[in-house]
Amino acid sequence: MSVAGTAGSGPLTGVRVVELAGIGPGPFAAMLLADLGADVVRVDRPGGASLGVNPEYDVSNRNKRSVIVDLKTADGPSRVLDLAARADILVEGYRPGVAERLGVGPETCHARNPRLVYGRMTGWGQEGPLAHRAGHDIAYLAPTGTLGLIGSPAEPPPAPANLLGDYAGGSLYLVVGVLAALHHARATGTGQVVDAAIVDGAAHLATMIHGMLAAGGWQDRRGANLLDGGCPYYGTYETADGRYMAVGALEPQFYAEFLELLGLPDHAAARKDIARWNDLREAVTARFKFRTRDEWAAVFEGSDACVAPVLSLREAPHHPHLAARGTFTDHGGITQPAPAPRFSVTHTSIHSGPAQPGADTADVARDWDVPRLLQDGG
User: Which of 98, 126, 274, 312 is a plausible cystine mate for 94, CB 3.0–4.6 Å?
Assistant: First the structure.
C-alpha cells in the first residue's frame, strides 16, 4: 500500500496508523511507529489531551499528522471508522470499554476492516479485577515486583520517572505486539486485538531475574544482589563536586582495570569475597571523593574498566560518543533523541515536528480519501 503526501522514510513506509489521542505510552508508541516511517494520523479531540506543555514542544507527536474529531458528536465515530477502514494499525489508550461506548471499538472497526490490527494500551490490561481502575506508571510497577527491585534498602523505592512502566513495559511491548500482528494480518488477511498492559510488560522485563530467583542466585530483597546495588563494583559513586560516576566492572579483567585506574590494587581479592564487600565499598566511595566527576571521566577514558560519568539530560547530547553517533539531534530548535534503532537500507529521520491539533486535516482527507474529515466539526 503506497501512501501519498508523507515525507517519511524507514522500514514502515507505506504502513498507515490511526492514533486515538491520549497521553503517555500510547503517543510514544505511535511516535516510534512514525519514526520508523509509518504514516501516523493522530485523531485529536476538541480541546486536546495535554501534558501541560505547549503542543509545539510535545516531541512525542513528531513525524505524525493530526486531525480533530469529536467522537461524542453524531458523525464523529463514522469519521474515525473511515480512517480505520484505510489503516493497517489503530492505537488507543482508553480504559476498557470506553472505545466501545464511543463507537470505535474493535468489533466495529473490524466490521469495516477485517485486516486491522487494533492495539490497546492500558496499565492494568483489558480484563482482571483492576482493569477499570485508574493508575499511573508507578502504581502499575508496584504489584509486579519490578519497582521493589530498585533503590537502596535503607530508603523507599524511588520513582524511575515514567520510563520503566509507561515506555519500557508499555509502549515498547505495544509496538512489538502490533508489528507482530501486522505480520500475521498480511500473511492471513485477518487482523486482531493486541492487549498491551503495562503490568504484563513490566513483569516480563524481569524474566531473567525470576529465573535467577528460582535458581537461588537472587535474593528477594533490594540491595543484596549483583545488579541492584548490592555489589560494590556495580553501582554509582559520588565525586568531589557532588556529581556521580557509574561503575559496572563485573568481569575479572574489567574489575582489575577498574581497581588499577582507581588506585586500589590491593583490593583485587575482594571481588569474589562477599565478606569483604563492605570494606571494598567504603574504599571505592572514599577514593571517588578525591576528584571531580570530569576528572575521573578523564582517568577512565579509553579504558575497559566499564566506568562512565552520570550526565544530566542537558549534558547528554554533548557526550563525545553520543555526539559522534548523532544519538541526539536538533529539529525545529528542540534538542531530542534521534529515531532508534538504525537501519542500513531503510533509513529513519525526523521529517516533521510535533503535529499540531487539526493542522493536517485537509492533507489527510486527500491522502487517505476520507472527505468527511472536511465537513464542519471535523
Answer: 98
Q: Is the peptide bond before 339 cis (omega within 30 degrees of 0)?
A: no
E-state strands within the chain = 16-20, 39-44, 64-68, 89-92, 117-122, 192-197, 234-238, 244-248, 307-309, 328-331, 334-337
**Predicted confidence (pLDDT) per residue in 80-115, tens digit:** 999 999 999 999 999 999 999 999 999 999 999 999
Catalytic positions are 136, 166
Beta-strand relationship, 334-337 and 328-331? antiparallel
Which three three-digit cell numbers place residue 316?
A: 547528554
As a whole number of angstroms, the distance between CA 149 and CA 222 comes to 5
Among the listed residues 66, 65, 64, 67, the one whose alpha carbon sits nearest the alpha carbon of residue 31: 64
Cell for 193?
A: 486485538
Q: How far is CA 159 from the centre of its chain?
A: 16
| Number of other CB atoms surrounding residue 367 within 10 Å | 18
pTM, 2 dp: 0.94
pLDDT single digits (tens) 320-370: 999 999 999 999 999 999 999 999 999 999 999 999 999 999 999 999 999
